[in-house]
Design a protein that fits this description.
The complex is a heterodimer of chains A (285) and B (306). By secondary structure, chain A is an alpha/beta fold. Chain A has helices spanning 3-7, 22-28, 48-57, 79-92, 121-138, 160-171, 179-189, 193-199, 230-243, 259-266, 269-273, 279-284; strands at residues 13-16, 34-38, 62-65, 97-100, 103-106, 109-115, 143-145, 174-178, 205-210, 214-215, 220-221, 247-250. In chain A, strands 1-2-3-4-7-8-9-12 form an eight-stranded parallel β-barrel. In chain A, strands 5-6 form a two-stranded antiparallel ribbon. Chain A has a two-stranded antiparallel ribbon with strand order 10-11. Chain B has helices spanning 11-23, 28-31, 35-40, 43-47, 60-82, 84-90, 92-105, 120-125, 133-151, 168-173, 191-199, 230-240, 245-248, 256-268, and strands spanning 175-178, 183-187, 212-219, 222-228, 272-276. In chain B, the strands form two sheets. A three-stranded antiparallel sheet of chain B has the order 2-3-4. In chain B, strands 1-5 form a two-stranded antiparallel ribbon. Classes of the chains: A alpha/beta (285), B mainly alpha (306). Chains A and B meet through helix 3, strand 5, strand 6 and helix 5 of A and helix 1 and helix 5 of B.
Chain lengths: 285, 306
């Protein structure tokens, strides 16, 4: 399987599956193109989350999105984690498996945060080697998301987009382009978000993320607890145009409103995508 | 703007430095001077902007503190969700202080936070200045056990109605295999009663010491707590430990009608997944159920957030 195969699978518009919405989904089976799950919420457990996932995966396409692969860490890759990840993918038939271009811990400690990487030749070489190992294990291209970051390293030798281009070229991995993260980083670090999008290697982009964020005096924080702002929607329209259309997901993780409210926000992406209705509704009409 | 790290700063050093600074209980401006952090990168290099590039609208330390603040807040939030009783007993501020100390002693080492609070009861027991610490330890034990039950491996409960007939002698020597979510707790304080009051939005006081036996288990995807009378607890304890049914029941004062009722309750609650024959080295074989009495009504409490 190549990343171009994944990129061509435009699943339409999805939202992140969250436990507060389980009862609504199981009762109403709402119209939606697909769900993205947080992989770790369904790993190392045998309880209700897996039962719910089984039921939902029987009716909707599923995509897996992780936060603990620790792909950028200098710690050894956690192959127990990767085996669990693969088992979950096989169980729910996930179309893509994604994580973040970051590290989440070192010396065995998990910080449970997406820690930033310096964009250096050393880091690139390190991550290229590990992405290849992960792809060999998963037997499919890994998809990595551009993270929100709050610091820039003085040692960085290249722009994030240059790093992503080199990583994709050397590993064949895919990219999850989080448009909100692009905007948050552009504001925090003072670069042009639209120019960033023009430099993205679009052939490698498999999926979009959209979300809301919080504004503080010294930075913008990727909180996923609000609707996306106007600038993010404008950037998404540009990204959609540049990509030609990719699977699009809205994430909402804090102060989560009703399922209908999250879906309403996600469906705003239809405007940029030139769709009147999501694919699922069209298919059932 | 400085354009390079000091030459000896590798990716490994950079990550170990940032991890140490983020985990440090104080703000980054102080954390960079702590021994482990300064062993990775000299504080002077950080202050000169040779590690983190200065931002246009914030200081270097303000930006590092975005990660430091989120680290502790995230872990407190995770444990607060699993420890509503403990959170109520301590109050939000003191709960946060306790967890801040706990995180320093037991940082997370797992891809998810399912078992992050596992050491909390023992940690609480060692906090000699914490008022009511023995009660709080028992409350934490109960809540940690609920998390373990929630995430226990999948299982199929024993269906007593499908078991073939076997002789009473076989039953005496048979062993019941408990479902992997089942835990029997002997609490030194009535922590279950306290927790239920919290979940019912009451404002319970810290109770006096007193034995409370509670079975914690998962059924149909949800976690339940069942208060268990002491005689039942004695037998159940033995059965969970793998003692043969005959020996487990050889406790003075048991009434046959009680035993029949207990087995009915356990069966109805899915406590066991198999009955194994006594023959050594032989493959387990199913036997008949010794009781089919309907389960009596019992106090069941839903795990918060499940």
């Amino acid at each position: 399987m190549r990343v171009s195969d994944l990129a061509q699978r435009d699943l339409g518009i999805g939202i992140g599956l969250r436990s507060v919405h389980f009862p609504h989904i199981l009762q109403h089976w709402p119209a939606l193109d697909w769900f993205e799950i947080l992989s770790e919420n369904f790993m190392h457990t045998g309880g209700r989350p897996l039962q719910v996932l089984d039921a939902i995966a029987a009716r909707y396409p599923i995509v897996m999105h992780g936060v603990s692969m620790n792909i950028g860490s200098v710690d050894p890759l956690d192959f127990d984690y990767l085996r669990e990840l693969k088992k979950l993918r096989d169980r729910c038939g996930a179309r893509f498996v994604s994580d973040h271009l970051c590290w989440t811990g070192v010396d065995g400690v998990n910080l449970h945060d997406l820690m930033p990487l310096p964009y250096t030749e050393e880091a690139l070489k390190h991550i290229v080697r590990r992405v290849r190992q992960v792809q060999d294990c998963l037997e499919m291209p890994l998809v990595l998301e551009n993270p929100s970051t709050y610091v820039n390293f003085a040692a960085s030798q290249m722009r994030e987009t240059e790093f992503l281009r080199a990583l994709c070229a050397q590993t064949g991995c895919g990219l999850l382009m989080d448009v909100n993260n692009v905007f948050v980083c552009a504001t925090n670090h003072g670069f042009d978000a639209a120019q960033y999008l023009r430099e993205v290697p679009w052939d490698s982009v498999v999926q979009f993320h959209l979300a809301g964020h919080s504004v503080y005096a010294t930075h913008r924080l990727d909180t996923h607890d609000a609707p996306a702002c106007r600038e993010v929607w404008q950037l998404f329209a540009l990204a959609h145009q540049l990509s030609g259309g990719r699977s699009t997901l809205f994430e909402w993780d804090g102060n989560i409103p009703s399922f209908a409210a999250v879906r309403r926000e996600a469906w705003k992406a239809k405007k940029a995508r030139g769709e009147l209705r999501p694919k699922a509704e069209v298919a059932r009409a | 703007m400085p354009d390079a790290l000091p030459p000896n700063v590798t990716l490994r050093r950079l990550q170990r430095w940032m991890s140490a600074v983020v985990q440090h209980p104080r703000a980054a401006a102080h954390a960079i001077d702590a021994s482990f952090a300064r062993a990775q990168i000299a504080p002077a290099a950080v202050r000169r902007g040779q590690v983190i590039a200065p931002a246009h609208n914030a200081t270097i330390f303000q930006r590092i503190d975005v990660y430091g603040g989120a680290y502790l807040a995230r872990l407190i939030e995770a444990l607060e969700g699993d420890h509503r009783g403990l959170g109520f007993a301590l109050g939000h501020a003191d709960f946060g202080k306790l967890i801040a100390r706990y995180v320093q002693r037991y940082p997370s080492r797992h891809p998810n936070l399912n078992r992050f609070g596992k050491e909390l009861p023992a940690f609480i027991a060692r906090q000699s200045s914490l008022p009511h610490r023995l009660f709080l330890r028992e409350l934490a034990r109960l809540e940690v056990t609920m998390s373990l039950a929630f995430d226990a491996p999948e299982f199929v409960p024993l269906d007593a109605s499908t078991l073939p007939q076997q002789s009473p002698t076989d039953w005496v020597h048979a062993v019941l295999r408990p479902n992997p979510s089942l835990h029997l707790l002997r609490l030194r304080y009535p922590a279950n009663r306290y927790l239920q009051a919290v979940l019912d939005d009451a404002s319970p006081r810290v109770p006096r010491a007193g034995l409370e036996c509670v079975a914690v288990y998962r059924q149909a995807g949800r976690v339940w707590r069942m208060t268990v009378p002491a005689p039942m607890a004695k037998v159940l304890d033995r059965l969970i430990a793998g003692v043969a049914i005959g020996r487990a029941l050889a406790v003075r004062g048991q009434q046959p009608k009680d035993v029949a009722r207990w087995f009915g309750e356990w069966s109805g609650s899915g406590f066991f997944v198999a009955v194994e024959s006594p023959a050594k080295g032989a493959a387990p074989r199913p036997l008949t159920s010794c009781a089919s009495a309907p389960p009596r009504s019992r106090r069941r409490s839903r795990r918060p957030g499940s």
